[in-house]
Design brief:
alpha+beta, 2 domains, about 40% helix, single chain
């Protein structure tokens, strides 16, 4: 479940201790700040603010589901376990194969350790342009990454929009002139 970064937390007395309690999805974890007899209310409030600031500013490390690689492993495919997760179960085998290859070779090496909300459209555009791909291949790569980001938005993982959706595809190359071959260059099967 996504964690909002602007939570205040509530200060409570529980079993003779000051505790701070906050919302994480559908449950409310708490943390003990110290004994009531040792802290005044204003000292406990200061400790609550410090605790919540630390909690709200906390940036997860790679492997957590908030990074692109962590989200991919948790919701799509875990390379270590060789297990297909729920987001890939309804895809065709060829799509699963291509999507795994694209994520592992194109997107995860560059953006895998980055937090989902820290990846922007401009960076994705720059990376895709640097690969110097044809329009169809670039469209496939963008579509697979967009599917991952769309799932992150749908599942409530920090994001409010899909940055891959706004990546532009390279222009198609110039149209090749149509050349009619002279009869001498045609195969004998075509001339009759």
């Amino acid at each position: 479940m996504t964690r909002r970064r602007d939570r205040q937390g509530s200060l409570r007395i529980k079993d003779g201790s000051w505790t701070v309690q906050w919302t994480e999805g559908s449950h409310r974890p708490s943390h003990s700040l110290g004994r009531v007899k040792d802290l005044t209310k204003s000292e406990a409030q200061k400790l609550r603010r410090e605790w919540m600031r630390k909690l709200n500013d906390h940036r997860e490390v790679a492997g957590n589901s908030r990074t692109l690689e962590g989200f991919w492993r948790e919701h799509f495919y875990d390379d270590d376990k060789k297990a297909i997760a729920h987001e890939l179960k309804d895809k065709r085998p060829s799509t699963v194969r291509d999507m795994k290859w694209t994520m592992n070779k194109i997107w995860l090496p560059r953006f895998g350790e980055r937090l989902l909300d820290g990846i922007g459209t401009a960076e994705l555009q720059k990376h895709l342009d640097s690969l110097d791909l044809g329009r169809k291949t670039a469209a496939k790569y963008r579509t697979y990454l967009s599917s991952v980001f769309s799932s992150a938005v749908r599942l409530g993982h920090v994001l409010t929009y899909n940055p891959a959706r706004f990546v532009k595809l390279p222009a198609e190359g110039p149209e090749k002139p149509y050349v009619i071959q002279p009869p001498s260059r045609l195969s004998p099967f075509m001339t009759g």
